[in-house]
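ARCHIVE CARD
CATEGORY: sequence design from structure
SOURCE FIELD: tokenized fold
FIELD CONTENT:
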């Protein structure tokens, strides 16, 4: 299948956004790069994780998009965070399962989303928190960073165990996955317990945009003023982890996104 950025929406009309995680205008997968990851794989029980870095400034748990750990720049971003002074761990919450770009707009996508419901991966996240605790890393030193589906996971973890970490970074947040389960984004927003950096893109639902309903719900919380937005409304959903950085506009915006995330983490996470 074509791995370049599509100019046409990839979601057929019969499968609308409520059965998807991505807006129809999401970017394609960048061609596989020859990037050599610098970290290593570790096992927490039967959970495979990518690990790198030392916790000079704290720790970041990275949660990949539906295309899996090995796709796009996930490992490169982990390596970059490690270079900036963070211990980074990226769990494979799908246990080797993943979507292909051709699955977007087909019945395979909602089936994947329903298979990997929160109950399926909560024990894995608990294993990650236990691992960080064993490394003597307190919750205030831990941030979560997600891409697309990973942001939905962060919101669920904040609602469930927000005391386990300090904050979340959300790139092209696919919180609309809630609609696959017949729930609403705003109802999940009401349960958040952590400051969030939100980085929405073109085509995201109103609830996750700056000054949207989700933001207004966050602002009413005691941590509301610590929530931040960096909007990329000219960029396609998926660009930070999957966009083609040989294109200057994408590369510049990826840099802006990651720099913004590091600034945010510097404020809300303390080693």
């Amino acid at each position: 299948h074509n791995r370049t950025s599509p100019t046409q929406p990839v979601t057929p009309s019969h499968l609308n956004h409520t059965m998807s995680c991505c807006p129809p205008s999401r970017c394609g997968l960048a061609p596989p790069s020859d990037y050599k990851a610098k970290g290593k794989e570790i096992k927490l029980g039967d959970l495979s994780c990518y690990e790198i870095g030392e916790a000079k400034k704290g720790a970041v748990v990275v949660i990949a998009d539906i295309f899996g750990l090995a796709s796009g720049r996930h490992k490169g971003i982990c390596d970059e965070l490690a270079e900036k002074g963070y211990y980074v761990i990226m769990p494979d919450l799908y246990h080797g399962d993943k979507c292909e770009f051709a699955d977007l707009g087909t019945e395979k996508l909602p089936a994947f989303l329903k298979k990997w419901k929160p109950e399926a991966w909560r024990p894995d996240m608990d294993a990650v928190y236990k691992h960080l605790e064993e490394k003597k890393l307190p919750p205030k030193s831990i941030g979560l960073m997600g891409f697309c589906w990973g942001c939905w996971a962060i919101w669920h973890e904040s609602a469930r165990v927000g005391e386990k970490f300090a904050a979340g970074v959300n790139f092209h947040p696919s919180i609309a996955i809630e609609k696959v389960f017949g729930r609403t984004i705003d109802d999940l927003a009401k349960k958040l317990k952590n400051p969030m950096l939100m980085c929405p893109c073109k085509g995201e639902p109103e609830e996750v945009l700056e000054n949207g309903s989700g933001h207004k719900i966050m602002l009413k919380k005691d941590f509301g003023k610590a929530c931040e937005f960096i909007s990329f409304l000219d960029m396609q959903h998926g660009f930070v982890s999957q966009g083609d950085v040989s294109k200057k506009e994408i590369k510049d915006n990826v840099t802006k996104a990651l720099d913004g995330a590091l600034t945010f983490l510097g404020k809300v996470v303390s080693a």
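CARD ANNOTATION: Residues 1-18 have pLDDT under 50 and may be disordered. Strands lie at 40-44, 47-52, 58-63, 86-91, 142-147, 167-171, 196-199, 228-229.
SHELF: design records, drawer C
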